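Support reply, case 0932

Customer input (verbatim):
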Amino acid sequence: MNYTESSPLTQSTAIGFTPELESIIPVPSNETTCENWREIHHLVFHVANIFFTIGLVIPTTLHLHMILLRGMLAIGCTLYIVWATLYRCALDIMIWNSVFLGVNILHLSYLLYKKRPVKIEKELSGIYRRLFEPLRVPPDLFRRLTGQFCMIQTLKKGQTYAAEDKTSVDDRLSILLKGKMKVSYRGHFLHNIYPCAFIDSPEFRSTQMHKGEKFQVTIIADDNCRFLCWSRERLTYFLESEPFLYEIFRYLIGKDITNKLYSLNDPTLNDKKAKKLEHQLSLCTQISMLEMRNSIASSSDSDDGLHQFLRGTASMSSLQGPFLLGSSGAAEDFAEEAS
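Our regenerated output:
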């Protein structure tokens, strides 16, 4: 019979198989467009993506940006799980979003833990608010600073914190928390120390270059006093590991030494005036700083210029000489920073 039948090979070629390799290697279809779109997914799917979008567009300048981002991602993953379980019945989508949800919850928990309110002891809250908080020292960092290698000590009225030419300056650094201390040289009064002020800041700065020195002044408790005391060696190691806090201490100690220099020029300086000193300087204070700057500027060697200023101030009262010389190194550093 003279008729032809369509062979399987012909049919295979017609539906997209290459004639050269016949039916061995299939060729994908040329269709690249979707003719039949599926129905729109359930509303839960779209709400989940809205939460993802909100989380991604939160500005990084926002204080709680990371917490809000992780919160939005966690909510989105939760809605994806609901959608995949109840409306899509897709096990793989549910499993992957469960993993993402677990990761986001762990990270969110860690961020919330870091943001927890840090409780500062009531006795230390005064020095934190007055000295460290204005310089943006975080409460947790301040707690680390005051929670290690330091202790709160007490002196009764008349007891000695340091005796001139006897007490070593290498052991400690202290801030007065309560009471008042009196600084004298050879029995002659120099100035007072009030709460939230360093007790031995000049000695701390001067002994950074010279070890084994003794106090050149006598410091006695004029009231019942309590002070925060650091081990100087351990504090130094701690500050080396915290560059930000190291700079804060340099500033605070330099500022405290400068206030002590001002109090030498103004023996009537009391606690109320000392608190106002940070905001409004007296005429005597301004003249003293001007003399210090002029002395430094007029000398080719800033150290010689500062010593010239200190010797000039000491000539006003021979009793104040040892204290000023003991704090010359610190005043020099602070004067350089201020200029």
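We compared this against your earlier run and they match. Two observations from our side: Residues 38-115 form one domain. Confidence is low (pLDDT under 50) at residues 1-25, 277-303, 305-335. Please reopen the case if you see a mismatch on your end.
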